[in-house]
């Protein structure tokens, strides 16, 4: 079973201030990268805008002397003021608008760093925020992370880059393809499973967080001799099959098994291609053979005892 997760962008302000307006005001709303989420008033932002405007005027005035100390200094101040706003997540478009207006704006928009759907919202008009305030969490559903529990005995067959085919009961007949991008280092001691992460494209947004699915990994073993799992009697220390002989006889045969593939085992030793084995009523045949062996031993012991009494 698999749990779908997503790549989540968490939105924090880079500066303290007060929320002026909220443009994305409910969870579940689809947003695009660069779309305004809210507008923020901050005295530091107003000061930074004024410094940018002043530095631009000084740069333009001293532009002809850009190779002088004053010219280089004015250019450095302008770039520094501009870079400060960029680091506070004020975009290029807003910076151009500030320079065009020539006056600072009371509040500036904070844009979404990624496209997706709003999972959580903690932004309200008039709210004071700091860099520790998580305003939104936004899930990018265009690519889904799939966390798969792989059984311990299957781990040697799993590797990075391997393709998995997923199916969901919610979409009969439809499959999704993903690739393993990460194999977790720790085994779950209770379930004896290890988690692996697949990335699966989700262009139609059919896959949602916390869904469950089944997955199949295709393994190329080449040409191997296999036997049905139901044909094997496993005592824990050895594996036995019954080989069909001529005349309706059956021969118990110890075999050596390799990996399990679906409902079959790869046979490493004990059988030859073309030999027929019992795949149904195997338990009854085994019980009958053990019963005959026990009765035969009982008869031999009675006969020996009778002879001893004589």
How is this structure best described in words?
The relative contact order is 0.13. Helix 1 (about 45-60) runs antiparallel to helix 2 (about 70-85). The strands form 3 sheets. Strands 1, 3, 6, 8, 9, 10, 11 and 12 form an 8-stranded antiparallel sheet that branches. A 5-stranded antiparallel sheet has the order 13-17-16-15-14. The protein has helices at about 45-60, 70-85, 90-100, 280-310; strands at about 1-10, 15-20, 30, 35-40, 105-110, 115-120, 130, 135-150, 165, 175-190, 195-200, 215, 225-230, 235, 240-245, 250-260, 265-270. The protein has a domain at about 225-305: conserved putative lor/sdh protein from methanococcus maripaludis s2 fold, CATH 2.40.420. The model is unreliable at about 295-310 (pLDDT under 50). The longest helix is centred in the C-terminal third of the chain and has 28 residues, at about 280-310. Strand 9 (about 165) and strand 10 form a beta hairpin. The two termini are about 70 Å apart. The protein is elongated and about 110 Å long. It has about 300 residues and is α+β, with helices and mostly antiparallel strands. The chain is built from 4 helices and 17 strands.
Our count of helices gives 4
Fraction of helical residues: 10-25%
**Beta-strand content:** 35-45%
The coarse overall form would be: elongated
What is the number of strand segments?
17
The low-confidence parts are 297-310
Largest sheet data: 8 strands, antiparallel
- Calculate the mean pLDDT score and round it: 83
Rg, please? Answer: 36 Å
Q: What separation lies between the terminal Cα atoms?
A: 70 Å
Give the SSE string. Answer: EEEEHHHEEEEEEEEEEEEEH
The level 1 CATH classification of the domain at 226-304 is Mainly Beta
Which CATH architecture of the domain at 226-304? Beta Barrel
CATH topology of the domain at 226-304: conserved putative lor/sdh protein from methanococcus maripaludis s2 fold
Provide the structure class: alpha+beta
